[in-house]
Amino acid sequence: MLKKILVGISVLVALLLVIVAAQPAEYHVERSLEMSAPAEVVWEQLSDFNAWRAWSPWHKMDPDQKTSVTGDAGAVGHTSSWDGEKSGKGSQEIVVADKPKHLGMRLVMLEPMPDEAETGFKLEQVADGTKVTWFIDGNNNFVKKFFALVMGMEDMLGGMFDQGLSDLKLIVEEKAKEQAAARAAAGDEASD
């Protein structure tokens, strides 16, 4: 009887290993949201890691995280590093700065699980402003493939991207209104 139980458990473990190994080797998650603001206004918020504290879902999840920002905002080499109880430890660095169309970053996680991914934003002019697409591309090692069976990257990151884009939208639309009001006031003063 014990032998049959052990054989059954071995078969289940082997089946689980085959299912895990069959999971995709790569992942891609993206979310988009249209914002009533010019791409330049959106770019200012995305390309300066100091501005992320106001809208990033990871800062809101772990407001006590220690952060360090180096380099020139909006330029290749601009880097943000963090260490937090909930957000883990890692960094991201701008590697592509095609203002105001594409911002590419290299994400390096050190804790809780070492990982690297390419992430960033694409900005596209639309009738009422800018369509912002937040994306991430990475590789699934065996451990991530296992966790993908329970909760995939789409589930883990998609909601965070949605939240961040919604918060970003509020900020950039307010800034766009302020800039439009300032231009209108300057125009009124010039015509006097």
Produce the secondary structure layout.
Layout: H1 2-21, E1 26-35, H2 39-46, H3 57-61, E2 66-70, E3 79-84, E4 88-98, E5 102-111, E6 115-126, E7 129-139, H4 142-150, H5 153-191
Antiparallel strand pairs: 1-7, 2-3, 3-4, 4-5, 5-6, 6-7
Structural class: alpha+beta
DSSP helix count?
A: 5
Indicate the percent of residues in helices: 40-55%
Sequence stretches where pLDDT stays below 50 over 5 or more residues: none
Mean pLDDT: 83
The succession of helices and strands, N to C, reads HEHHEEEEEEHH
Please give the largest β-sheet. Answer: 7 strands, antiparallel
Structural Rg: 22 Å
* Spatial arrangement of strands, main beta sheet: 1-7-6-5-4-3-2
Distance between the termini: 97 Å
Task: Tell the overall outline.
Answer: elongated
Q: Please report which band the strand proportion falls in: under 5%, 5-15%, 15-25%, 25-35%, 35-45% or over 45%.
A: 25-35%
The strand count comes to 7
Description:
- The chain has 192 residues and is an alpha+beta fold.
- It is built from 5 helices and 7 strands.
- It has a 7-stranded antiparallel β-sheet with strand order 1-7-6-5-4-3-2, covered by helices on one side.
- The model has no long low-confidence stretch (mean pLDDT 83).
Concise structural overview:
The chain has about 190 residues and is an alpha+beta fold.
List keywords for this structure.
alpha+beta; 7-stranded antiparallel β-sheet; 7 strands; elongated
